[in-house]
Amino acid sequence: MDLNFSKEDETFRAEVAAWMKAHLTGRFAELKGRGGPGDEHSFHDLRHDWEKHMATSGWTCVGWPKEDGGRGLPIEQQVIFYEEYARAGGPGRVGHIGEGLAGPTISAFGTDAQKKHFLPPIVAGEELWCQGYSEPNAGSDLANVRTKARLVNGEWVIDGQKTWTSLAQNADWCFVLCRTEEGSKLHRGLSYILVPMRQPGITVRPIVQMTGTSEFNEVFFDGARTAGDNIVGEPGDGWRVAMGTLAFERGISTLGQQMQFRNELDAIIDIARQNGRDRDPMIRRRLVDAWIGLKALRANALRMLSKPAAAELPREAYIYKISWATWHRDLGKLAMDVLGPDAEIGEDLPYDLTALQRLFLFVRADTIYAGTNQIQRNIIAERALGMPKEPRN
Amino acid sequence: MRFAFTDEQNMIREAARGFLAECTAAGARAKGIADPKGFEVSLWRKMAADMGWAGLIIPEAHGGLGLGMVELAVLMEELGAALIPSPFESTVCLAAQMLLISGDDIAQSEYFPRMIAGELTATVAVTEPGGDWNPTLTKSQYVRRGDDILLTALKHYVPFGHSADVIFVVARAEGSRGENGLSILAIPGDTAGLNRRSLVTMDQTRRQAAITCKDLVLPGSALIGEEGQGHALLCELTRFAGTALAAFQVGAAQRCLDMTVDYTKERVQFGRSIGSFQAVKHKAADMMIGVESARSLAYYAAALADSQSPEFPETASAAKVMCAETYFKVVADAIQLHGGIGFTWEYDLHHYFKNARATEGVLGIPDAHRDMIADYLQLSR
Prior knowledge:
The complex is a heterodimer of chains A (393) and B (381). Chain A has 12 helices and 8 strands. Chain A is of the alpha+beta class and 393 residues long. Chain A is globular. Chain A starts with 6 loop residues before the first helix and ends in a 9-residue tail after the last helix. Chain B is α+β, with helices and mostly antiparallel strands and 381 residues long. Chain B has 11 helices and 10 strands. Chain B has helices spanning 7-25, 28-34, 41-50, 69-82, 88-102, 105-116, 230-266, 278-306, 312-338, 349-360, 366-376, and strands at 122-125, 141-145, 148-159, 166-173, 182-188, 195-199, 208-219, 223-224, 268-269, 272-273. The longest helix of chain B is centred in the middle third of the chain and has 37 residues, at 230-266. At the A-B interface, helix 3, helix 7, helix 8, helix 9 and helix 12 of A face helix 7, strand 10, helix 8, helix 9 and helix 11 of B.
C-alpha cells in the first residue's frame, strides 16, 4: 500500500487544475457549483456546451480505454481528475449517463459497429443518454418489466412505459430494458435496446419532485422505433447486460461525487462556525461524525477501485451504494439543523430554494433510486453473506 | 498510489491466520485466561520469536523485520479475530512503537533484541485512577536526586502490567504542568518497591494491573528519549497504537459477523433457517456494512501512516472512533441474532462482547477522539 502520488501524477494534477482555472471562466463562470443534486435542471444548455468544450481538450471519458476514444487514464489520474474537477467547482456533468453507463455497457457487450456508431458522440459530449429501467410495476422488482419490443420489418417497435427516468427530457438516446419474448417471465426474454428519444413514438412527461423541479420523468413508448441492429447482446440476454450496466455505477466517478460531498460538508461546517451552532455539542458531534463517515466512504471507494476486476464482487463494493446514500441523506438533515430557522427561508418566488434546501429534499431520493436501501440489504445478505434467498411464489 | 495489499502483506496474513487457527483449535484462549500471567508464556515465545511477530515493526538494524503500520494492522486484524490472550498489544503496539518513536538508540538496543526473542514482554503505563488516556492529566511524578530519579507513581488500567518484564511509566517532573515536563521511565517489572496488582477484568483476554510506587529509586538511564518530551511522543504513539487497535477491532467484529451468518443459516425456526427472514438478513447486512466501512478506514489510516501523510493524525482518530463503536455494535447484534446461545458462557461471543467494551476506551474514548477531530475542523468547544 502506498497512498502517495508520483511526481508524474502531481504534474497531471497541476495540469487539470490549470485547465479548470483557465476554462471555467467567461460564460462558463456562472456554472461553478451548479447542476448538483436537486439542481440538475439548472443551466442545462450551457452545461451541455461546457461538456462539448471539455471534450475539445479531451476531458470527457477520461477513464475509457483509448480504443474507445477515451483518455485511457490510469486509476490514480482518474482519481486526480475527478478531485480537481470538483475542487474547481466543476458543474454537474450532463453527459454522465452516457459516459458512465451507456458507453461502458456498449463497450463491454456491444458489436464493433455499435461502438463505432455510439461511442464517438458520447466522447464528443454531443449525444446525451438516459436509462430506461424502472416502470410503474417494476421498481425494486425490476425483472417485472413489461415494456415490449417486437421486430417489424427489421425494426424494433417499442410499446410501454418507463418511469423515474433521469434527464430523459434532454436525452438523445435511451437504453431500454424490455421484453422481446411474448409471455416470458422474470429475467428471461428481456433485451437491451437502444432507442432514439426524439421521435413521434416517444412522449416525455416530467415528474415534478418535492424540490419543485424535475430531474425524473415518465417516458411513454407508443410504437417507438429503432433499427434492428440497435440491440446490445442477443435477444433475451438483456438482464445480463442490464446488470453489467449497474456494475459500472460503481466507477471512478464516485470519487468525483465524493469531492462534491466534501464541498457540501465544508459549506455546512462553515455555516456552523459562522452562526455559532458548532457550540451545540450535539451539532458538533454530528458534524464530526459526518466528517468521519466521509473519510470512510473515500477509503472504501479507493479500496474498491484499487482491486483488479474480478468475477466476484469485493465486499467493499457491495456496501458502497447504501453507504454513500445513507451518509448523504443524513447530511441533508444535518444541513437544515445547522441552519436552524434559516433552513426554512428560500431564495426567491415562486419556489426557488437554496442549494442546501435542494440538497435536503433531493437526498431522500438517494436511498431509493438505483436499488433502495432495503434492496441493497437483501443483496448484501444474499450475495455477499450467502444467506438463504427469500422464498418466492 | 496503490491502496491494495502486496503479496508479502497477504502472506503475513495467511501465515497468521493459519497459526492462530491451530492455536484456537488447541484451546489457546482458555489456557491464556487460566494462566496467572494472563497469557501462555510458551505460546508467546512462538508468536514472538518463531513467527517473528515481536520484531515486526522493529528495524532490521536491531534484528527485526522492519515492517510498517500496514503489516502491523494486518497482523492485529488476525489477532482480533482469534482473540487469544497475548502481550502483543502491550509489547509491540505500545512499548516497541514507543521506543521507535522515542528515537532512543540506547534503549532500543537494550530492549529490542530480547523483545524479538520473546524473552521480554513490556507495557506502557499512561492511565491513572479515572482512566483518562490524556497524558496531560498525569499526576505521577519524579524528582532528580544526583544521578538518580525518585519516582512516585499511581498507575491504573495498565494492560498486562502485572506480568510485563518492563514497564514504561509516564510521569512528570515535580512541579511541571499540562503538556510540559512529561517523560517516560523504564522500570523492570521485578524492581523491589514496585507494587503490582493484577485487577480482575471483565474481559479475561486482556488483563490490567494497578501499579504503585513511592520514592522508588531509578538510575538516570531509566529515562527514555528526551526528558520532558513525553507529550508529543505519547500523542504520536496514540495514533499508531490506535490504528493498530482499530484493525484488531475490525478483525474481531468480522469474526462475530461470520459466526452470526453461519449460525443463522443453520438455525431453523418456523420450518426455515432463520437467515432466510428479512428481519435477520437486514441486521446481518447492517453488520457487514459497519465492518467493511470500519475496515476501509482502518486500512486507510494504516496506509497513511506508512505514507507519512499529513492526513494521518485526524484519520487515525476517525478510525479509532469508527472501529471501536462498530465492534461493539456488531458483537451486540451478533448476540441478539444468536438468541439464547449467544448469552451463554460456553459460547465464544461473550469474550468478544466484553473485549469490545474493554477496548472501546483504550487509547482514548471515542468522544475524546471526536474532540480532536473537532479541533482539526476548527469547531468551537
